[in-house]
């Protein structure tokens, strides 16, 4: 599906949902060509939707818990008399709504996350909220379960970085941005080196951020990478207000665009991103400065 031209950004989300909701998490994306580059910043590459789908594990659900009909519109309570096959009545979200969904951890609706400490192990206390001080800065402790370093998605098996908000700001601060860059030059365009604004001048691109997080050994591991676009879409909570993510699990993920490692087949200077403003999957120029949320695949 090609990007819808000449429409306000606020209209992209409902149109994309209408066209792609049933298929987005299982293969629908913004290009139907067969040579879509799919790769991470370690240089591993594949092409086409088959490669993207093969690289993408199962996902939780959409987080949509409302219904709609032709007369009343969308965002309506589900009363039982609306048209069949409503998203809210299918899948993990529907099972969670009636209390029959078994979870290994916790999360909104059908989502299932476990909070991990700096050592990569599950926190002993999992049921506490992230805490901040009067200035909104992180001030919890892992021992109390009020701060955590990573989140494991118990459905997909992926482990995600958790952003920080401290004073002074550190490497993982939520406000840093990065240009898209991959020195492997997959797709014929490396992108823009060090174009963003981040912790260390000259390191503000996606490739160097991956390198720096792996050198740090976040949550005890050094195999962090950019997610592909579908992995990132798997975090979107389409039934929520902005940011469209489970903020209780990812408290410092903001209403921003987040880079994926996926290129765009139609134009070598573009790469794919996911916006947590609207839950929109799209693409942008590689010299744009967007946020980054890293992932790792291994258990």
How many strand segments? 11
Instruction: Identify the overall geometry.
Output: globular
Strand content: 15-25%
State Rg: 19 Å
Unreliably modeled segments:
1-45
Distance between the termini: 34 Å
Biggest β-sheet description: 4 strands, antiparallel
How many domain modules? 1
Number of helices: 5
Class inferred from helices and paired strands = alpha+beta
Mean pLDDT, rounded to whole units? 84
Which terms would index this structure?
299 residues, alpha+beta, four-stranded antiparallel beta sheet, three-stranded antiparallel beta sheet, 14% helix, 15% strand, globular
Can you tell me about this structure?
Helices cover 14% and strands 15% of the residues. With 299 residues, it is of the alpha+beta class. The protein has one domain. It starts with 8 loop residues before the first helix and ends with a strand.
Task: Summarize the SSE layout with pairings.
Elements: H1 9-20, E1 37-39, E2 45-47, H2 48-54, E3 67-69, E4 73-76, H3 91-97, E5 113-116, E6 150-153, E7 159-161, H4 206-216, H5 229-233, E8 257-263, E9 270-275, E10 280-285, E11 295-296
Antiparallel strand pairs: 1-2, 3-4, 5-6, 6-7, 7-11, 8-9, 9-10
Quick structural overview:
This protein has 299 residues and is α+β, with helices and mostly antiparallel strands. It has one domain.
């Amino acid at each position: 599906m090609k990007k819808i031209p000449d429409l306000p950004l606020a209209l992209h989300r409902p149109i994309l949902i209408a066209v792609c909701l049933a298929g987005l998490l299982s293969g629908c994306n913004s290009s139907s060509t067969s040579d879509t580059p799919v790769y991470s910043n370690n240089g591993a590459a594949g092409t086409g939707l088959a490669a993207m789908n093969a690289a993408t594990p199962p996902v939780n659900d959409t987080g949509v818990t409302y219904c709609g009909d032709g007369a009343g519109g969308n965002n309506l309570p589900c009363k039982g008399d609306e048209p069949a096959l409503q998203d809210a009545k299918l899948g993990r979200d529907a099972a969670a709504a009636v209390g029959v969904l078994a979870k290994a951890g916790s999360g909104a609706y059908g989502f299932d996350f476990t909070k991990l400490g700096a050592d990569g192990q599950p926190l002993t206390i999992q049921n506490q909220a992230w805490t901040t001080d009067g200035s909104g800065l992180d001030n919890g402790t892992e021992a109390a379960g009020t701060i955590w370093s990573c989140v494991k998605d118990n459905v997909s098996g992926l482990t995600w970085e958790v952003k920080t908000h401290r004073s002074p700001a550190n490497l993982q601060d939520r406000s840093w941005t990065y240009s898209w860059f991959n020195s492997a030059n997959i797709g014929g365009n490396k992108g823009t080196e060090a174009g963003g604004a981040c912790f260390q001048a000259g390191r503000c691109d996606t490739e160097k951020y991956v390198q720096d997080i792996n050198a740090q050994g976040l949550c005890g591991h050094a195999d962090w990478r950019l997610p592909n676009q579908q992995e990132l879409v798997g975090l979107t909570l389409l039934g929520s207000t902005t940011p469209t993510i489970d903020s209780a699990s990812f408290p410092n993920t903001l209403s921003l665009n987040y880079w994926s490692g996926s290129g765009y087949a139609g134009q070598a200077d573009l790469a794919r991103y996911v916006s947590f403003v609207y839950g929109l999957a799209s693409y942008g120029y590689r010299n744009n400065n967007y946020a980054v949320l890293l992932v790792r695949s291994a258990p």
